[in-house]
Design brief:
This protein is α/β, with parallel strands linked by helices. It has twelve helices and 23 strands. β8, α1 and β9 form a beta-alpha-beta unit. Bound molecules: MU-OXO-diiron (FEO). The site of MU-OXO-diiron (FEO) has 8 residues, from α2.
């Protein structure tokens, strides 16, 4: 259990760091664990707790609150349990504390955590809450990544408490983030899995947040950011329509034929000056795969035929790509079948949520011959041409 950490006079981190957690949403590996950040803001008259922690880590939060005799407000920026789950225990300790949140979040917290209606104060976008020398302002930011999400801004300290937005799954004893590659990767992985499906609405939120003078971003997962421009600029780039000269290549091979096709295409794409992010789906890390989709211009799905369709591991990866709504522009499908296949229309169906311009798919019966390998070279040439036309690659 870690003790609270001071950010500035009257503002403290009071959360929980989970160095051991290895999976989030029963889907995404956490190579560096995660944290659930709550923050305490003490004014001269009132004290507020901003968000809480995952119920499994409630004791860590309560330990940080040992020396806090009075709490007036619990600000709930988000109803998901990894931030709201400890609210009932905090309310139990502080009998007069009120939960301050928006109407939608109140409804969700009442149904998820059985909190009584009279424990709430409902606020709207732009409302303020004076604590005595410190003022909290509530900023409506729906769909990052639930409908009720909001941020809280400490006017005097210029701190944006952003909850999941700008978060990262990174357990660290350090309070602040740095520009290390490990930190950048953790922020990108987090954005990919949680925020990417909402990139168009986040783009608007980023424009709106540009009007605030922010010196600290205090998210609810991972370290606090003092390097605000770095975090804002990375997110602005990710939510933009600007794509990278990259092909994401998820594949499965049962007898080696599809893998030979993938090998040849990887080589050809590389010769055409295109970066390849290749994932063997029997051993892949879904977080790294999601992160590769953040800015890639193209996806090529490679599958053997399993019964009459795509391999189930390919179906899962394609389903995930469709759900995450990346900015992909182009796609193709390659693979090998034994006696018949319907995998091309099946995969296209699973990707129907994305506006993709398809490069002619290529299915072969059995092992690839010399002509098939040459045809794969032609796919690489076509991808290069499309990337140049789309301004992703210089001609
Ligand atoms: Fe970290 Fe949406 O909860």
């Amino acid at each position: 259990m870690l003790n609270s950490k001071r950010i500035m006079d009257g503002v403290f981190w009071v959360g929980a760091v989970d160095f051991s957690r290895r999976l989030f949403d029963a889907l995404v590996p956490l190579p560096d664990g995660t944290s659930y950040n709550a923050y305490l803001v003490k004014g001269s008259e009132k004290t507020a707790l901003i968000d809480t922690v995952d119920p499994a880590m409630t004791s860590s939060l309560m330990h940080c609150l040992d020396d806090v005799p009075t709490l007036d407000y619990i600000i709930a920026n988000h109803a998901e349990q990894d931030h709201s789950g400890a609210i009932p225990e905090v309310l139990c300790k502080y009998k007069n504390a009120k939960v301050v949140t928006n109407e939608k979040c109140k409804t969700l917290l009442m149904s998820h955590l059985s909190i009584e209606a009279d424990r709430f104060i409902v606020v709207k976008d732009g409302d303020t809450l004076p604590l005595g020398g410190k003022t909290l302002e509530f900023i409506s930011t729906p769909w990052v990544h639930w409908p009720e999400t909001m941020c809280t801004y400490l006017q005097e300290g210029k701190v944006l408490f952003s909850c999941d937005l700008f978060g990262s799954h990174l357990a660290s004893a350090e309070l602040y983030s740095s520009r290390e590659e490990r930190v950048y990767d953790a922020i990108k992985r987090y954005y990919a899995e949680v925020m990417m499906p909402f990139r168009k609405i986040i783009r608007k939120h980023l424009t709106m947040l540009g009007d605030f003078d922010i010196e600290y971003i205090a998210p609810s997962h991972g370290p606090v950011h003092k390097d605000v421009s770095f975090v804002m600029e990375t997110h602005r780039k990710w939510v933009s329509d600007e794509a990278a000269n990259t092909v994401v290549l998820p594949y499965v091979s049962m007898h080696g034929s599809t893998e030979r096709m993938v090998d040849r295409l990887t080589e050809s794409l590389s010769e055409e000056g295109i970066k390849v992010e290749r994932f063997d789906l029997t051993v892949y890390d879904t977080g790294r795969y999601a992160a590769s989709l953040v800015d890639a211009a193209t996806i090529v799905i490679a599958s053997p035929c399993f019964l009459t369709g795509a391999h189930p591991l390919v179906v899962s990866a394609v389903f995930l790509a469709n759900a995450l709504k990346p900015k992909l522009k182009f796609a193709s499908i390659i693979g090998s079948y034994g006696w018949g296949s319907r995998m091309v229309p099946q995969i296209k169906g699973f990707l129907s949520g994305l506006k993709l311009d398809y490069i002619e798919p290529m299915e072969i019966k059995g092992e690839p011959g010399r002509g098939d390998l040459t045809a794969l070279d032609a796919i690489a040439v076509e991808i290069r041409k499309r990337h140049i036309e789309a301004g992703v690659l210089e001609g």
